[in-house]
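Researcher: Go.
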Amino acid sequence: MSEQAASVSDTGRRRAHADVLIVGAGHAGAQAAIVLRQRGFAGTITLLGDEASPPYERPPLSKDYLAGDKPFDRMLLRPASFWAERDIDLMLGDAVVRVDAEAHNVVTADGNEIGYGTLVWATGGAPRRLACQGHDLTGVHGVRTRADVDRMIAELPAVQRVVVIGGGYIGLEAAAVLTKLGKHVMVLEAQDRVLARVAGEPLSRFYEAEHRAHGVDLRTGVAVSCIEERDGAACGVRLADG
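Model: Structure:
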């Protein structure tokens, strides 16, 4: 191990310097680390992610994981032992808040300073959050991380009606799963058809028909005005047309 290795923690060996620092422990960041080792790179590698979980597949979050059909350990990109065996330092549950490109170091939210030879930025995207009144109420969820879906799952037993805002792939997947779980689901899409940004009209109409046939109340061409509140939690959605 490099003499630059820092302390040992429950999230792995944390180095004060890495020859390659990969920020973002999702699929892209994890694959970058894997390929470096596969191609014989022998320097130090740190894979830094803001989630506490090791790298995992995200697509099942809105499908099998939400449905309870796929346990989290089956979503891991590699077993936990894989990273240690290849001397890839996982630094999890921390986020980069500052990058000094000239000095070749980063500072994290927990106050860690990490120097690097090469920086790979692989943080991916984030869901666009609602900007309307009530967007931050209890009971309003996005789907991006395991923690997001875990919070949703925890609330489902007490919920019978669910509104999904957005008729993209993730929204439609979540709507299908929630319907199978016995919930009354309404999908609200601002465009005149679902999947308008990513698919042609025939495919959009197919998915609309399938969801409606399975009991989803799917409405297109509607805009959300606000999330209504009762006792500090979301209780309904008001549309722009009243």
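Model: Residues 1-13 have pLDDT under 50 and may be disordered.
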